Amino acid sequence: MPINEPLARPKRKDAALNSERLVQAAREVFARQGLSATLEDIAQHAGIGVGTVYRNFASKRQIVETLYDAAVDSALSEAQTLLDIEDPWIAIVTFFEVTAASQARDRGLCETFLGHDSFGPNERAAEKIVAVLSPLFDRASKAGVLRKGVTVTDIGPIFAMLNGVYRMSDASPELWRRYLTLILDGLRASDRPALPLPALDVASFTTALTTSH
What we know:
The chain is an all-alpha fold. The protein has two domains: 10-57, Homeodomain-like (Arc Repressor Mutant, subunit A, Orthogonal Bundle); 67-210, Tetracycline Repressor, domain 2 (Orthogonal Bundle), CATH 1.10.357.10. It has helices at residues 13-33, 39-46, 50-56, 60-80, 88-105, 107-114, 123-142, 155-167, 175-187, 202-210. Helix 7 (123-142) packs across helix 10 (202-210) and helix 8 runs antiparallel to helix 9 (175-187). The N and C termini lie far apart (57 Å).
């Protein structure tokens, strides 16, 4: 009779605690420094050796995916509920305010959405962003509350612009709200002339999000 393979031993209690500490440390470091933070930065913040990081995670990419893949999916799930808001314009405003607030608190989340170095949405995630948010923008367009020519793919450049404000607002963490208000004023339907250039098409939007920066 073949000898049964030994059962995999559960993580020792201290190893499990190290893993939890690492994930929390990574969340705090990426939120403050963005995805350019190193594994050494995470280890130092957690108060452990960098070797312990590698025993828990094969790479920095694995940590980023552990933290942010679920966060992006959760944000999109919440965005779907915005269709329950009766006023199409208020739904659009709420989407930008909630998303911008999350990104302002967490540079890593912002860079994951926008793409940073080799990190960012894959093609499937980028297409999901368009699929989930299109009904929100289509409804607002049909209601006549969005400026002519505004489309869901405008969110990429808009959040890229806001990212510049997040980076310069240490002395005033809510500074982004001023500039988001100016942006929203430009998105709302009015007697302004048509926008000078078309928005990105879906293919170009996907490429912009998934290409390394």
